[in-house]
Amino acid sequence: MLTITVIGLGQMGGNMALTLKAAGFTVTGSDVFEPARSRLAEQGLAVVTPEALPASDVYLLSLPTSAHVREVIEHSPGLLKLAPKGSVIVDTSTSDPVVSRKLAEKVIAAGLQWLDAPVSGGPKGAASGKLGMLLGGDTATIERVNPMLEAMSAKRTHVGGPGCGHVVKLANNYLCAAHLLTTAEAVAMATKAGVAPAACLAGINSGSGRSAVSEVNFPEWVLSERFDSGFTTGLMRKDLRLARDAAEQLNIPLGLLNAVVDAWHANANQPTDSDDFNHIATPILARATQAEEK
């Protein structure tokens, strides 16, 4: 069995750590925040401070941004110096592909192995071992950590070398963000025309306009008004900015991407960064109801 250190014990990292522990792996968790360490320790996970990381076969990172990933790898003193030769750094964060590729070069030059493995499925998927994973790295590295990946995920797609997983993750999140806007507008239009939102979604989901947003997000979180997916508006905004930056660096004009980025940043208070990301549909749907009342 691989020995695994999970760095970043938020909703995603904490649940992944517990899932791997339940699968029989030797797992240690670490986080800069003491409350996060205490919460996981209370659930039976061995935890350490960032200064006391153990020698492990795999260092699994679940962090907010590329800057945090770089900090863990390069500084204080960083995994480049702390990790045993041959160990694998797996970045499950949604990171900047440019940064990831530069870090991957340094990791490999230091005698370590790299795999970017951004995930989808939210905290629920992390807790159940049913995540989706996009893998960027060498086939041999994937084969080495495959038992861990199988315990964490229901679906794994190898999309290329280092950084490619993060490229495809940004493309996926761009489409998800766009679908939330377009589906909300379509449902709002139908509502204004006298069609119940659930009936409109049933029709859309029987045709070519369906998407994961219309099939899952709207009934699960929007129409139910639960808004507890575990993914925030702030994180989606960050991912959209990364997607726009990637397009600009490639000198690709993507007018619709820019429109989606602008729409998600149009009002910082509706929704706020801390709100569930599905809340982006709320003001669109509300406008249809308000128009009907007038």
From TrEMBL:
Gene3D superfamilies: N-(1-d-carboxylethyl)-l-norvaline Dehydrogenase, domain 2, NAD(P)-binding Rossmann-like Domain. SUPFAM superfamilies: 6-phosphogluconate dehydrogenase C-terminal domain-like, NAD(P)-binding Rossmann-fold domains. InterPro entries: 6-PGluconate_DH-like_C_sf, 6PGD_dom2, 6PGDH_NADP-bd, HIBADH-like_NADP-bd, HIBADH-related, NAD(P)-bd_dom_sf. Residues 3-160 form the 6-phosphogluconate dehydrogenase NADP-binding domain. Keywords: NAD, Oxidoreductase. It comes from the Bacteria. It holds the Pfam family NAD_binding_2. Residues 163-281 form the 3-hydroxyisobutyrate dehydrogenase-like NAD-binding domain. This is NAD(P)-dependent oxidoreductase. It comes from Halomonas casei. The lineage of its organism: Bacteria, Pseudomonadati, Pseudomonadota, Gammaproteobacteria, Oceanospirillales.
